[in-house]
Design a protein that fits this description.
Layout (H helix, E strand, L loop, with lengths): L1 E5 L7 H15 L6 E5 L2 H10 L6 E2 L16 H7 L3 E4 L2 H4 L5 H13 L3 E6 L9 H13 L5 H4 L3 E4 L15 H18 L2 H6 L1 E5 L7 H5 L6 E4 L6 H11 L1
Helix pairs in contact: 1-2, 6-8
This protein binds 2-phosphoglycolic acid (PGA).
The site of 2-phosphoglycolic acid has 12 residues, from strand 8.
């Protein structure tokens, strides 16, 4: 099982990020059979890496480019050199700012080139009764993984995050049945694009309003190999209850 915490634009101070990391580091030691990755804002990566050595870290996004002339951007090389082993690509909050499937694909290729594992986020904006949401998922996967080889795919984690279920303004929580349907569908797409072995081995996470009450249902009936957790990964008390619930 793989649990990833996406801290987004929090916390506000480096000291808080270090304190949270230390607490998490103590807590996760009790869960030896689970892998954990935490994705703080870039500016805390180095501090956490220095003070909490064992924590596996991820960044939240990289640039599509390795060109220096890119004000405000962070390259896959920088993320690698600072010690991040993973990086999110295609988060819906970044897609909403205009990031395209082609850009996400380039980020994934850059990360793989630098041996950073992409956490490739996909998810429909809305559900409909005609199954159009399935086509949009297929499209995101095909475009996002263009040029990714079978060997490289072993280092890609897919996170299914229905956009309507993410964050405090979520329409509602997804159900485990909806998650299971999508896990099967994603595996089928991977089998068609690559082969059955890749489809069997791919790690698929569920994300979107995961909390201490619903986490277990997503990794059991929901069929997910783990979770991508936003808000609750910043709340040590709730995170601990969540971990106990899925043990
Ligand atoms: P949430 O965020 O758990 O706060 O809904 C999940 C995510 O956006 O990755």
């Amino acid at each position: 099982m793989l649990i990833i915490g996406n801290w987004k634009m929090a916390p506000e101070k480096k000291e808080q990020a270090i304190t949270l990391s230390k607490k998490l580091n103590v807590l996760i030691k009790k869960y030896k059979s689970t892998d954990f990755v935490f994705c703080p804002p870039y500016i805390y990566l180095e501090g956490i890496k220095k003070q909490v050595k064992n924590l596996t870290l991820g960044a939240q996004k990289v640039s599509t480019s390795f060109e220096v002339a890119n004000t405000s951007a962070i390259s896959a090389t920088m993320v690698k050199n600072i010690g991040a082993e993973y990086c999110i690509a295609g988060h819906s909050e970044v897609r909403a700012m205009g990031e395209t499937d082609e850009m996400i694909n380039q980020e994934i290729l850059n990360l793989l080139e630098k041996k950073v594992k992409p956490i490739f986020c996909i998810g429909e904006i809305k559900r409909d009764t005609q199954g159009w949401y399935l086509s949009s998922i297929k499209d995101q996967i095909q475009k996002g993984l263009a040029g990714v080889t079978t060997a490289q795919l072993k280092n890609v984690v897919i996170a299914y995050e229905p956009v309507w279920a993410i964050g405090k303004n979520a329409e509602r929580e997804a159900t485990p049945v909806e998650s299971m349907e999508m896990v099967i569908f994603i595996k089928k797409i991977i089998a068609d694009l690559y082969d059955e072995k890749s489809s069997k081995n791919i790690t698929i996470l569920y994300g979107g309003s995961v909390n201490e009450n619903n986490a277990k249902s997503f990794v059991t009936a929901g069929g997910a190999n783990g979770l991508l957790i936003g808000r609750v990964s910043l709340d040590i008390k709730k995170f601990e209850i969540l971990l106990k619930s899925i043990k």
